[in-house]
Design brief:
The complex is a heterodimer of chains A (938) and B (383). Chain A has 938 residues and is mainly alpha-helical. Chain A contains 49 helices and 2 strands. Helices cover 75% and strands 1% of the residues of chain A. A two-stranded antiparallel ribbon of chain A has the order 1-2. Chain B has a 5-stranded antiparallel beta sheet with strand order 4-3-2-1-5, with no helix packed on it. The chains are: A mainly alpha (938), B alpha+beta (383).
């Protein structure tokens, strides 16, 4: 509804049109007109005013003329506020003609312009405004001028001439004495900028647009223009600017609420203003706003609710400008709000994607899990979400999680579009977890079920790797060969060539392997595997006794990046070769000698490089030995002691103990007694210095060294032992000192201290050989206490970690004994059989294992079967008398249990023939007793 | 001028605030007219009638429309009819329109326009004072104006709190926050008013600004988290974020501030502050790229506000230290799109332009203020 109609409705509704003016005096008519005008009853006023004009309008009296001026003017006003703009215009024109210099000329001109505008004579109205502004420039207040400019802006808007709006608005900015009209002007100016897509100028207006009760908060026109501009920017991928625009758009419902609340406020205010004669123009302004707001509300009704779309775009713009936290919250909100299942699905997926960019990734995983739970394989994004989640777990190197996640994914959705990829990643994660069987299982499954999968080439490589690490070199080689023939230019080619050579080496095909390695270093001079390749070439040359060649290869390793363990291996292997073999001729070029200078040079270079993880003490050890062997004895000893001083205050510097032991041996072997004494005195000096410098670890280390001094007095030795074997030293003792404390404590029956030392070794030096003795000691102590759980724990570690060591065999035997004690015969039998499967343990351990095996069979009452291993003991291992004595007796008992008393007795009689061998064992007397019993039975 | 206005005009704003804090006292400062006393006699002599009646128009059945109020009790509203004191049960009143004949809202707009926030607020409070004790009456037109006053005090406080602004004066800022707090407190008495929660939260906000953390926390805990469409949503999360930021819980503060940014981006009293808070959080979490983005946003969009000035100096700091010079890693989440935007370049181009514009703006404002002064002097002379 436009302003004129609005004005008319409001005013007519409250007017009583039945005012009769006949039969009243002019005075009465004037009083009635004034009263009606004061009450806002303009229609009633018109009749009286017209009556007065008719009665007194042509009067020539000056007083009457003066009095009539306001009557003429008021008639125009009354017509105006009853929306009779044509009549109002005429009335004001009459007034201006009669009173060209009257008091109301400025107002009359303004009303004429307003009347023209309300009669849609926009161009004429604009000209009229312009003219009146010029004509009455000094008469109008700032308030009125602002009103005129506002009206002129409205004319331009009505003609859709937005380009002409900004200069007028600028005048309003300059003139407006109040914030409200300034705010209105800001909004109109914003629309004009938006029409021309002058977005930067819009940003300057934002504080004004967001003010409290701003026109922007209820203007449909402005919000729609903003929406269009935002969409424009969005489609041009200007996301940041689009975002800034979108964010100031009011949601549909909020806009409606604001407009309705404002309309109610305006109506209430208009009711009050209607009764004020001094605020007519304010009333007009208000009525105009009422009309505009009603029109806004009507047009809003015709616009579909755009809130969800708006928030979606804001979220997308946040996403595109990397504001992922902001975007995620909005997507989660949209996920709750939207009803369309597809959009719901997409919003949750997008929230997940935002979370992927944020650290920590916990929220991403939570949202991913939520997606998996909510959609159970049916969401549009299930495949991408699950695939990405797995990759994120892989990014964190959480391999067990990768495996469990993809397994769950394939359980939920076996027809996953990236099924092969899932299976491949399960295999890859399994490889990382060193579960090579699972790697082979999943890769084989993948290739079998989906031979055309995009991961086929990758699978060949990883199958080769899995087989190679399982030491199945033959199978591994075949996969690498297949990979090279299937895709010779794949990303794995270089690696596969190297691995093929490694497999050949593993298969002991040295010549072929060497050829492959040589080809590899020639073909890939910048390969990251060059160091390893040279190391392998060194190994091959060394195995073929081409020692000089091996040294050259090993030394080349140092020129390339390589894993430090392999680097150390190559360097020390090279050092050993140089140290142990005569590789150069003496100065007469007649005899081959060891090149100690080369050893010293080699290890000095190693120390200089000092790569992280280098074994410096070991290198010092070699240099010292080389110096010694060269005859530079004092130099060698000093070299050792310097190293001890430099590195000896670190508990974990195990190499220092090795150097120290070497130093002790060499120092004791000095024949020059004075030099020897002087050398040992250096240790005392060093201890004193260490004490001064609070290097307690070094001091304790050196004290232990003093124990090995030749000709040390018992008194001094006892004093030193007492000082060393103290609970307070446990924390500062090196592993060798801890072993010493452990042994000495056992001798003194201080088992608690011994166990403390052993436990420290196990806890801190877990991976060292020292831990082997400590664990064995702890296991034996536990067995004594019948704490089989602890004993089995330590023995199990010895068995696992030191698999090839003889003590591992002993551990197995002890484990077997424990299981026998616990009557867990299957486990006991397995332990003994494991011992029998290792050829290296053939000595003492085998008869023990055979005897243990028989014991477990006896425990199960399988006496006939038990006889077999027992017989093997005394026939094949006659050297081990203790076990033979046990075996004779045990076999006899088995036969007796089978009621074969004669055979049983025969066995014992045979045993009795070897009195010299067996009489010292307790079984001897038992055998004699049992033989007598058997003879009685026979 | 009526008796009311003669009395009120002379009172200083601070004194008025004291009156606001103690609503039980009558605006005249006389003894409280309790229902008990009023009930003693239904007839009163004209000399004993309250000197500052509040004129209202009441919507409801049975009662005369325009009333001259005397007192408000828990159950009834008392008014004068001739020389009698009559009562209306409160439950019968639907809406109330106070007649502030001397109050011109347009003048408030003028004050606001000239950034004379305190003057605007004082003008409102002075004119509304006689009606303040009736604020609990349903659907009245008092709270809207009172909200305007409260926000004007808040704007004044922010202006004085702005270290980079021309009117920086922390003591004055504190005084204005106290006044804003008091007015908001009064508004919360109108429990029917949709903005009551907002006023309550604004009290917590003012308490935070006054460094009264315990009070702020207590007030905050009295409010349940508002719904997203609620007008109080943004302020609730802004206050929550501010407290968490004070506790150095940056990720939590960021999460709260983001809620305010996401769902209340159209409130000038919330949005720039919330966005600035996100920038602080990002900066403290060492995410300089996002801090840069947020600072730039506030600096660009709210250049002539206290928040805009802080953001502008922060963005200059970040660029000067080259904290965002290295290219940002693009995560797999953005691999699908190829949107490349050189924000550093945009900011570097913006900084000198903004400095120039700021200079022009300051000069223009200065000229304008001088012009207003001249006009006021002229008016004074004429009057």
């Amino acid at each position: 509804m436009g302003l004129p109609a609005c004005l008319a409705l409001l005013l007519f509704s409250s007017s009583d049109l039945a005012a009769a003016v006949s039969n009243i005096t002019a005075k009465e008519a004037r009083a009635q007109a004034n009263a009606a005008m004061a009450q806002g009853e303009f229609e009633q006023a018109i009749e009286n005013l017209q009556y007065l004009i008719q009665a007194l309008g042509d009067s020539s009296k000056e007083d009457t003329k003066r009095m009539m001026e306001s009557i003429y003017y008021r008639l125009g006003v009354a017509f105006f506020f009853t929306a009779q703009f044509d009549s109002a215009e005429k009335a004001f024109k009459v007034y201006l003609k009669k009173y060209p210099r009257g008091a109301y000329t400025a107002d009359a001109d303004l009303y004429i312009a307003d009347s023209l505008r309300f009669r849609d004579k926009i161009d004429k109205a604009f000209t009229a405004y312009k003219r009146t502004l010029k004509k009455h420039a000094t008469q109008y207040t700032r308030d009125q001028k602002t009103d005129i400019y506002c009206a002129m802006v409205r004319c331009k808007i009505a003609k859709d001439q937005w380009a002409k709006v900004p200069p007028l608005i600028k005048e309003i900015f300059k003139l407006a004495p109040d914030a409200e009209r300034k705010n209105w002007a800001a909004c109109i100016l914003t629309i004009s900028y938006l029409k021309k897509m002058e977005v930067s100028k819009v940003f300057d207006m934002i504080p004004l647009l967001l003010g409290r009760n701003s026109f922007a908060s209820r203007s449909v026109a402005l919000n729609m223009e903003l929406l269009a501009a935002g969409d424009n920017l969005f489609s041009e991928e200007e996301y940041r600017r689009a975002l800034w625009i979108y964010r100031i758009i009011y949601p549909h419902d909020m806009l409606e609420n604001n407009a309705e609340r404002y309309l109610a406020y305006l109506r209430r205010k208009a009711e009050l203003l209607k009764k004020r004669t001094d605020a007519l123009r304010a009333l007009m302004r208000l009525q105009e706003r009422i009309g505009e707001t009603e029109a806004e509300l009507k047009s809003l009704e015709e616009i579909d609710n755009y809130d969800i779309e708006l928030y979606t775009r804001i979220a997308k713009a946040y996403f595109e400008t990397s504001l992922f936290r902001e975007a995620r919250d909005l997507y989660l909100y949209l996920n709750e709000e939207v009803e369309n299942p597809e959009s719901k699905d997409e919003d949750l997926f997008l929230a997940f994607r935002c979370s992927m960019a944020l650290r920590p990734l916990d929220d991403a995983f939570k949202l991913g899990e939520r997606y998996m739970d909510e959609y159970k394989g049916k969401g549009n994004y299930f495949d991408i979400v699950t695939m990405t989640m797995g990759k994120l777990y892989a990014l964190l190197e959480d391999w067990p999680k990768v495996i469990s996640h993809y397994k769950r994914t394939l359980e939920i959705k076996p027809e996953h579009e990236d099924r092969a990829e899932c299976e491949f990643l399960i295999a890859y994660a399994s490889f990382m977890e060193e579960d090579f069987d699972q790697t082979i299982f999943w890769l084989t499954k993948m290739d079998k079920q989906n031979p055309d999968n995009p991961r086929y080439v990758d699978s060949l490589y990883w199958l080769g790797m899995a087989y190679m690490f399982s030491k199945n070199y033959k199978e591994a080689e075949s996969y690498f060969e297949e990979l090279l023939s299937t895709d010779p230019s794949s990303q794995y080619t270089e690696d596969a060539k190297y691995r093929t050579a490694v497999c050949l080496f593993g298969l002991s095909k040295m010549k072929e392997a060497e050829k492959h390695f040589k080809d590899f270093v020639a073909q890939y001079p910048h390969s990251k595997l060059l160091g390893e390749a040279y190391m392998m070439l060194g190994d091959i040359a060394a195995s073929d006794a081409r020692l000089k060649e091996a040294v050259t290869y090993y030394q080349k390793v140092a020129n390339y990046p390589i894993n430090v363990e392999l680097y150390n291996y190559a360097m020390f292997r090279c050092g050993e070769i140089l140290f142990q073999n005569e590789l150069k001729y003496d100065k007469h070029k007649k005899k081959l000698v060891i090149d100690y200078d080369a050893v010293i040079k080699h290890f000095n270079a190693y120390i200089t490089r000092n790569r992280p993880g280098s074994n410096i003490p070991q290198a010092i050890f070699y240099i010292g030995r080389s110096l010694w062997n060269k005859g530079e004895r004092s130099g060698a000893l000093e070299h050792y002691l310097d190293a001890v001083k430099k590195y000896g205050n670190e508990v974990s510097a195990l190499g220092v103990d090795m150097i120290l032991e070497e130093w002790i041996g060499k120092a004791n072997s000095l024949k020059d007694q004075k030099l020897k004494e002087r050398t040992w005195n250096q240790v005392w000096d060093l201890i004193k210095q260490a004490r001064r410098e609070h290097k307690s670890v070094l001091a304790l280390r050196l004290k232990r060294a003093l124990l090995y001094k030749q000709n040390i007095s018992d008194e001094e030795k006892a004093r030193l032992i007492k000082e060393i074997v103290q609970p307070r030293n446990i924390d500062i003792a090196t592993p060798s000192t801890l072993v010493f404390i452990m042994d000495e404590a056992v001798k003194k029956h201080s088992m608690a201290l011994a166990e403390d030392a052993a436990n420290t070794i196990v806890d801190i030096f877990t991976e060292t050989d020292y831990a082997l003795d400590a664990r064995m000691f702890l296991a034996k102590q536990a067995m004594k206490r019948k704490d089989y759980k602890t004993a089995l724990k330590h023995l199990g570690v010895i068995r696992e970690v030191f698999a090839t060591n003889l003590q591992a065999g002993e551990a197995l035997a002890m484990m077997g004994d424990i299981y026998l004690e616990k009557k867990e015969y299957d486990k006991a039998e397995k332990c003994y059989k494991d011992i029998l499967s290792v050829k290296e343990w053939k000595g003492k351990l085998w008869p023990r294992a055979l005897y243990g095996l028989a014991q477990s069979l006896m425990g199960r009452r399988e006496y006939a079967k038990a006889c077999v291993p027992l017989e093997r003991v005394y026939i094949m291992y006659a050297f081990y008398k203790e076990w033979c004595a046990k075996a004779y007796l045990a076999r006899s008992r088995c036969l007796a249990k089978m009621r074969e008393y004669r055979k049983a007795a025969a066995i014992l009689r045979e045993m009795m023939k070897h009195e010299d061998d067996y009489s010292k064992f307790k079984e001897w007397s038992e055998a004699k007793k049992e033989l007598r019993k058997l003879e009685r039975k026979i | 001028m009526t008796g009311i206005h003669r009395y009120v005009t002379g009172i200083a704003a601070t004194a008025l605030c004291v009156a606001l804090i103690a609503p039980a006292a009558t605006a005249a400062g006389k003894k409280k007219v309790t229902s008990k006393k009023a009930a003693k006699s239904r007839y009163v002599s004209p000399s004993k009638l309250p000197k500052q009646p509040a004129m209202v128009t009441i919507t409801g059945e049975k009662y005369p429309k325009t009333l001259n109020l005397v007192a408000l009790t828990d159950t009834e509203l008392q008014y004068v009819k001739g020389l009698r004191i009559e009562k209306i049960p409160r439950k019968d009143i639907q809406s109330v329109n106070f007649l502030f004949n001397r109050f011109d809202p347009y003048k408030v707009k003028v004050f606001e326009h000239r950034e004379q926030f305190v003057e605007g607020a004082v003008y409102i409070v002075q004119n509304l004072a006689p009606a303040l004790k009736y604020i609990k009456l349903p659907d009245n037109n008092l709270v809207g104006y009172l909200s305007d006053a409260a926000y004007l005090y808040l704007d004044a406080a922010a202006t004085h709190d702005d270290k980079k602004g021309r009117h920086y004066d922390p003591k004055k800022a504190q005084t204005e926050y106290v006044k804003a707090y008091s007015v908001f407190k009064k508004i919360t008495e109108a429990d029917w008013y949709y903005g009551a929660t907002l006023a309550h939260l604004n009290m917590a906000y003012c308490a935070l600004k006054l460094k009264k953390r315990a009070i702020a926390e207590k007030l905050f805990k009295e409010i349940d988290p508002p719904e997203i469409d609620d007008a109080a949503f943004g302020l609730y999360w802004l206050v929550d974020g501010m407290m968490k930021f004070e506790d150095k819980k940056y990720p939590e503060a960021l999460a709260s501030a983001i809620k305010a940014v996401d769902f209340d981006s159209r409130d000038l009293h919330v949005f720039p502050q919330a966005r600035l808070l996100t920038a602080y959080c990002y900066e403290d979490m060492l995410d300089y790229y996002r801090a840069r983005d947020a600072y730039f946003e506030v600096a660009r969009l709210f250049h002539d506000t206290p928040e805009g000035r802080i953001a502008f100096s922060s963005i200059q700091f970040i660029r000067a230290r080259k904290l965002t010079d290295t290219a940002e890693a693009v995560g797999i989440e953005k691999v699908f799109f190829n949107s490349v935007e050189d924000v550093n370049k945009t900011i570097d181009e913006y900084i000198p332009k903004a400095k120039e514009q700021d200079k022009i703006r300051r000069e223009r404002k200065k000229r304008l203020e001088e012009q207003w002064k001249r006009e006021d002097a002229k008016k004074k002379k004429h009057s």
